[in-house]
């Protein structure tokens, strides 16, 4: 299969709110008041964690049957450790992005713990969002 291009557009609104759109669907990202926003939506790092968890949920659902997992449901909690002083410039020693990301799986499935542990390894190695975060893409920036 040939490469596909995925596209998202973002536009700064009032304050720190950002309108995000892809394929005719949209949502707003913002920051909480303590970070200068008006709290009209998740902030970008929360959206990133949500995208990672959603991608893992999709991989779990799409590949449960071929992996002999009798999946009824899965709930995934993704937590990230981030020091806001990094991107705010208050501490030049602080990492700007997440220093740790932890995924906790809550399965409803008719399988053994060992089978689910093997399935988690499958999910972790087949999730496009995790792969992008673990093995960064080439980034190109330009001014139009």
Question: Any overview of this molecule?
Answer:
The chain has 144 residues and is an alpha+beta fold. It is built from four helices and five strands. The chain has a three-stranded antiparallel sheet, with no helix packed on it. Strands 4-5 form a two-stranded antiparallel ribbon. Helix 1 (44-63) crosses helix 3 (113-126). The mean pLDDT is 97.
**Which architecture of the largest domain does the CATH hierarchy give at level 2?**
2-Layer Sandwich
Helix count from the secondary structure assignment: 4
- State the assembly state of the protein chains: single chain
- Structural Rg: 18 Å
Strand order of the largest sheet: 1-2-3
Count of separate structural domains: 2
How is this fold's topology laid out?
Layout: E1 9-12, E2 18-22, E3 25-29, H1 44-63, E4 71-81, H2 84-88, E5 100-109, H3 113-126, H4 128-134
Antiparallel strand pairs: 1-2, 2-3, 4-5
List keywords for this structure.
5 strands; 32% helix; globular; two-stranded antiparallel ribbon; 144 residues; alpha+beta
Give a nutshell description of this structure.
By secondary structure, the protein is an alpha+beta fold. It has two domains: 1-41; 43-144, GMP Synthetase, Chain A, domain 3, CATH 3.30.300.
